[in-house]
Design goal:
The structure is a single chain. This protein is an alpha+beta fold and 240 residues long. 21% of the residues lie in helices and 50% in strands. It has helices at residues 17-25, 92-98, 108-127, 130-136, 163-169, and strands at residues 2-7, 9-13, 32-35, 39-43, 46-57, 60-74, 77-87, 142-147, 154-159, 174-186, 189-200, 203-216, 220-229. The strands form two sheets. Strands 1, 2, 3, 4, 5, 6 and 7 form a seven-stranded mixed beta sheet that branches. A hairpin with a 2-residue loop joins strand 6 and strand 7. The longest helix is centred in the middle third of the chain and has 20 residues, at 108-127.
């Protein structure tokens, strides 16, 4: 998902990697993208990356912005699992300069608003409110999960909407809580990385790390994410 600021107002577009490949193949010259710097957060076989970037076509700078990537490691190879980014054609000098001072926390108000959107998602689970759940994520949202329940990593994929039926029929309260978080924001995109604990009723069933992408489109909404599922070691995750 991209958010472009060509004429001041944000323009949001979504597409698949296959559509991007077709567009690139039609160009007479292939653009080159470079990261100025990067922050990387990893737990086992999932990772999130936040980075300012620029795109060049020959010697000409096309645009700059911020990339947010999710990655999953399968069969020993890291592969992209999702991406959101901003495109700012006229702000490359400022973005390159800002890259020298990473990391940069967002203003408190922006951090609070992003985390409130995630809390809306968690609260919908606790209340078994599928309407609230649906309102908290985009129709494109999907999860990629790496579970360590059997000792070796197992990768699962599913649409966020597929959780609604499971949540609605649960006889127990489902309670997920973030224990410690990093939040990064550029305009109308955000990435959140943090440890979490999951309870079914009063029992901690698992924990791990969440990586969320969010896009602000009539309010902040989850655009998808990656997370690990670990049945052991949850007490240690309580430490920031």
């Amino acid at each position: 998902v991209s958010v472009r600021y060509q004429s001041g107002a944000p323009s949001i577009a979504a597409g698949t990697i296959h559509a991007i490949n077709r567009s690139l193949a039609a160009l007479p010259e292939i653009p080159v993208e470079r990261l100025f710097a990067a922050e990387v957060w990893q737990d086992g076989d999932v990772a999130s990356v936040w980075a300012p970037y620029q795109v060049l076509l020959g010697d000409r700078v096309l645009h700059c912005g911020y990339d947010a990537f999710h990655l999953v490691r399968e069969t020993g190879q890291w592969r992209l699992a999702g991406a959101i980014y901003t495109a700012r054609p006229g702000e490359c000098d400022a973005i390159q300069a800002a890259a020298r001072t990473l990391p940069r926390d967002p203003p408190v108000a922006e951090r609070t608003a992003v985390l409130a959107a995630i809390e809306q998602f968690f609260d919908g689970m606790r209340r078994r409110d599928t309407a609230q759940l649906t309102a908290s994520f985009s129709p494109r949202a999907a999860w990629i999960i790496v579970s360590y329940r059997d000792g070796t990593p197992t990768v699962f994929r599913r649409l966020a909407a597929e959780d609604n039926a499971r949540v609605a029929r649960s006889p127990d309260r489902l309670d997920e809580r973030l224990l410690d978080t990093v939040v990064r924001v550029d305009g109308d995109i955000a990435v959140v990385w943090g440890s979490y604990e999951f309870r079914v009723g009063n029992r901690v069933t698992h924990c791990g790390y969440d990586g969320f992408h969010l896009v602000r489109e009539e309010g902040w909404r989850l655009e998808g994410g990656v997370y690990t599922v670990r049945p052991d070691g949850c007490a240690g995750l309580r430490r920031p």
